[in-house]
Amino acid sequence: MIKRANWLILPATAFLVCGCSGMSAQNESKEFSQIIKQDRSDIYALQQISALTVEDAITRALEYNLDARIAEQDYLVSLEDAELQKLNSLPTITAKRSFITRNNEAASSSISALTGVQSLEPSISTDQTRWTSMLEANWDVLDSAINIYRSKSALDRAIISEERLRKVRQNIISDVYSAYWRAAIAQLMKPSIEDAMIVSDQKLDALDTATEMGDLPLQEAASAKTSLLEKRKRLNNLYDNFVLAEIELKALVSFPPEHDLDLVVDEDWLDKDQLAKMSGSTDKYIDDALQKRPEIREELLNKRIAERGVNLAIYETIPGLNLLLAYNEDDNSFLLNDKWLDFTASITQSITKILTLPTRYARAEKEEDLADARRKALVAAVISQVYISKILTRKAYFDYSEQLRLFDVAEGNFKRAETYKDAGLMGSIEFADASLDYEIAKLERYAVYALGQEAQARFMNTLGYDLDDYYHLDVPEISLPPMTSEAGGVHG
After folding, report:
1. Threshold 0.90, pTM exceeds
2. CATH: 1.20.1600.10, 2.70.98.10, 1.10.1740.10, 1.25.10.10. Which one for 66-99+131-489?
3. 416 FRET partner, CA 20 to 30 A, in 25, 142, 148, 267?
């Protein structure tokens, strides 16, 4: 009977355990869903935007971008760590209150060390129940000095976090510049591209109809269709480079992707003088980059931290001085003085620290050498980046100048096609073909312009420029898009 009961209990227990586990998983899933729901609400809070200029996009991204917020929080935590490192140099203060009792009297006696005979009768010198209190200050002088010294490195690490925050913001500025112009181009070109596609669809249908009716030779119709389809494909491929830019821009400025974003640009935004001419001295650009780049400043701070590491390897070997001051209270009725002060001073030498000094010192020196090597490698990389970035930016300016000349030719061809069509000298299919050529030329002009803006932004990022630096540039050397609030709607 007992065995049968056991067999009944086991399945029931397993069912309860599985049921509880399932309920726990369901509750956990609901909790996670609530957290994610709240996260989405927090990410896109306060999102009222009517129109966005490029400078508005940069300002908003620097304020709301999640990567920037994380870097800023990391910097604030590093500052707190530096402050805590200083506080570690303070004496340790401990307060203690104890209740002591036992089940019998704490009686004791003594015996003679010479004869082994009991010299005193059993006696009591401690109450069976009593309270004690202690307030103790313990200060390790060497540890305090080392912690103060380490706090300097902790502060340098906080400055490193600040430099990383600068780098995150610089990358955001560069990314916003690149995404903004591509997104503006996508918004500008969308209506005309859709119209061109509709017209070309109609002309393709007309070609099919003309072929079926025998009004157009098959070979001529096939040639016309091939030309239209190839140009449609080319136009779509060009446009595909821009269609995702708006989503990218919304992510950078923490704007809901499902909402519309109206981008605003200046009237003369397609003027080639809006792109950098790069007439400045390369040596000056290199000097600016080596002074401003957050990565260089980080490695200089790492060098300073490594130097302190070498000194710490020696300081940790010095004997430590420990000072202990304690205030005591004991309500033991047998005590003549129930309140008293204790003071202890001691010197401690770690034999292990002495034995390991050569190894620790050698390792600290290697870290210092590594910091030097990293910094030199970074300096060389920055110099190369400045040269490359300057060449690419100048090339982008030249490419856009050439593209404007090509666009002028394409625009002239389209205007002549309009004249011929109005005069009845060009058919609708040929005009649709010319219209696609014109849309392709416009999109190619915009594409080269966007590449120029991207190259320009990357060059500023290579120099380590912050937002304020964009407003104080030497215009004859570097010409950037004017950062003003006077703007018109997106147009071509």
Report:
1. no
2. 1.20.1600.10
3. 267
